[in-house]
Amino acid sequence: MKRESFLKRFLTLYLPLIVILLFILFPFYWTFITSIKPDTELYGAVTYWPRQVQWENYTKLFTTTVNFLAAMKNSFIVAAVTTVVSLTASTLASYAFSRYRFAGRRAMMALFLSNNMFPTVLLLIPLYSIMRNLGLLYTPWALVLAYTTFTLPFSVWLLNGFFNDLPLSLEEAALVDGCNRRMAFFKIILPILGPCLVATGVYIFMTSWNEYTFAVMFTNNATRTIPVALKSLIGQLGVDWGLLTAGGIITIIPVCIMFFFAQKRLVEGLTAGAVKG
Amino acid sequence: MVKKKSIYPYLLVAPALIIILCVVFIPVVNAIGMSFQSYDLRRPNDIAFVGLANYIAAFKDELFWKALWKTILWVVFGVGFQFVFGFILALLLNKKFRGRGVVRAVSLIPWVTPGILIGLMWRWMYDGNYGVLNDILQKLHIINKSIPFLAQANTAFPAVVVTIIWQGIPFFALMILAGLQGIPGELYEAADMDGATGFQKLFKITIPSIKNTIFITGLLRIIWVANSVDVIFNMTEGGPAYATQTLSVYVFNKAQALNLGYSSAMAILLALVLCLVAVPYLIFTFGEEDK
């Protein structure tokens, strides 16, 4: 391969990359900077690096009435349980779609894939009364059920790709060796798919951690999740931007860490998946 | 493929199916029922079957048509630019350079950021008094007076569109990057030997190879963006003067005002419009499978 000149490489790679990254990352930089500025500096001439750094907003988040810690705990419970439920359901379903041909298969797949099509606001109102009648309103289960449904289509789709990519001969070999299908599934397929399941799980966790519209309807002060707590920082007297941005930074750190570990797998999963060129 | 007659696949699909039926199917049926009633919780004694009255009201409602038009603009410009920038980013990330892994991970962060936080972050940057965007534009001498971006009807809509573009670039980039990595390198080597230019390679190899990815991602994105409420709602709540009120935000606002019959009717109309997108998506997915 011939070497590109530095100038050409700069113009076709580094320059556009820097411009796009600046656009993508600047809002995060700004959010962080805002969270460590004292109020006097926040509401005055704009500064690009705080003249005076202070972490008071972060301590306020956890010590005052906001009770951010409780919200984090709620979010964690909802997201973790959703991940387990949704991942189990979608693994089983996509295994069936990938390995069996059965009557009604297409109709069911169509149902799965199209269920994101309904405007969420359409489901919100009837679901609210259903949850209330079932006594699930204001419990984490209301959100777990809702989020499982929203994450199923994409998870089934991702996992379907992983399964289709897995050679059938692997299971056939196991069956010949006297395994039954269930053993082959648990002993052979699951271990190989482990990393892919993790990537799908991270997607589910992220989605549940971030959701706001349903959370605001289905939780109360005791069970509210982080996005709802964030919104509650906007009071009658306007927005406390310092506190709000501190809350924002705390919110995205856990998912960012998880995402960094899983993103490589996620890209691989999409490559293996239904999006083949 | 495997045994034709077996109860196993049904058992495997059952858990997911039951959850979907309870959480989507029953509410949808409920909502359809509500859309034919004068279902207004502020007047609970007047709830009655009214036939198509809510739908007829929507067709006569100027705000409905305005919101539909805003939805179309929102999707065309939002998804359009997400695609353009996502595609460019994917092409860049597909090249080899030091630190690529980190850059890739970092550039995907908007995708993992909650919509409500995105709305609020941008609202703060657009602020008319202390917003950083005004400061930057003034320092660059592009404007000489602060603009309250989200408070003016003519700037609010472009402002929210920029925000949704920002949010959607990573997903496009991620999907297109996955597609790019599936293109065999020999294709490019052969083209190099024939003396093809960069543009020829882009239009003759790259784009044809990933057109399915682009198609599927585009359709998925259109559905998501059309349905998204949280970004606009947390920036402008649909204002000023309905300038940023897309159909899903309008439905949300009406539902908050407790006029459930009317908002259900509009939500169903929105779902019907989205069918125009979803049907080709389903046909395509199954068409692929048959190959």
TrEMBL record, chain A:
Membrane topology per record: Multi-pass membrane protein
Transmembrane segments: 12-33, 76-97, 109-129, 141-163, 184-206, 241-262
GO cellular-component term (any): plasma membrane
Family matches, as PROSITE patterns: ABC_TM1
DNA-binding recorded as keyword: no
Top-level taxon of the source organism: Bacteria
Classification via SUPFAM superfamilies: MetI-like (SSF161098)
Domain ABC transmembrane type-1: 72-262
Main location: membrane
Keywords: Cell membrane, Membrane, Transmembrane, Transmembrane helix, Transport
Subcellular localization(s) per the UniProt record: Cell membrane
GO terms (BP aspect): transmembrane transport
Family to which the UniProt record says this protein belongs: Belongs to the binding-protein-dependent transport system permease family.
Protein name in the entry: Carbohydrate ABC transporter permease
Species in which this protein is naturally found: Dorea formicigenerans
